[in-house]
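Task 17 of the worksheet. Students: predict the tertiary structure of the chain below and write it out as structure tokens. Keep your answer in the requested format; marks are given for formatting as well as content.
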Amino acid sequence: MTQTILKQTASVLLLATGVFHLIVAAVGGAASELKIPLAVFGVVYFGLGIWTRMGARTAMLTTVLVTALGLALGGQNYLANGGPVTLPIMFVIDVLILAAAGLWLVKTRAPRKK
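Model answer:
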């Protein structure tokens, strides 16, 4: 995959999961204590999707950090309390975002000097 395809993939997945988080927070049957965190992560993911499309390395590094944080916090909560069936789907999307962004970072790394 080219750097452009990886960047676009990460961006589209971020935009999609941002919308998905917002929908689940609004009407997806999530517990009331999850609605605000889901909505916040939805807005953050959507913003990252836009920034990733326009940005470069800093946007991708931020994407990796925020996505890993969301995956860890959401995964921990899901294991402890369960949740709607949509949460595992969001986790899969998070893993795909991490893969695309991680590969992009590896491919754009400056070659080492000898």
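Marker's comment: The mean pLDDT is 89. The first helix runs from residue 3 to 27.
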